[in-house]
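Students often ask why inverse folding is considered easier than folding. One informal answer: many sequences map to the same fold, so there is more than one right answer. In these notes we will look at a single instance of the problem. The structure comes first.
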């Protein structure tokens, strides 16, 4: 049987909203006359993955977690990331990922005239291995 994996850094329950989203997606597929695909999703079981870095308090970094999850998850529910579930260590990892994604977003489009300035600042910070001087 196929499964739809729900991956989130929050440890809140997600079965009911995931089921509703699945129904909407199946309805969309049926409207597009993609009945075979709709049947696959309709019969798929929702599985909420449990990860050691989940918590009930960090709602600020859900976008960073989501981006990292999308980068690394390949269907194995035993998959592991560098997050530890220890707030201090995970904050260091989140800070590094913020810089990485920030740099990728700012340098991703040719019309961003400030991309070079930001990239130089990110490279400078990465060399220092800290955030001192960010406000220069």
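Output (designed amino acids):
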């Amino acid at each position: 049987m196929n499964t739809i994996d729900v991956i989130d850094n929050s440890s809140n329950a997600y079965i009911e909203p995931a089921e509703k989203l699945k129904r909407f997606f199946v309805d969309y597929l049926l409207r597009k006359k993609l009945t075979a695909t709709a049947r696959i999703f309709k019969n798929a079981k929702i599985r909420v993955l449990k990860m050691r870095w989940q918590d009930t308090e960090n709602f600020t970094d859900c976008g960073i977690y989501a981006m990292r999850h999308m980068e690394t998850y390949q269907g194995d529910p035993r998959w592991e990331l560098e997050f530890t579930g220890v707030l201090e260590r995970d904050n260091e990892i989140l800070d590094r990922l913020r810089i990485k994604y920030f740099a990728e977003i700012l340098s991703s489009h040719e019309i961003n005239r400030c991309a070079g300035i930001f990239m130089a600042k990110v490279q400078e910070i990465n060399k220092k291995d800290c955030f001192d001087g960010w406000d220069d």
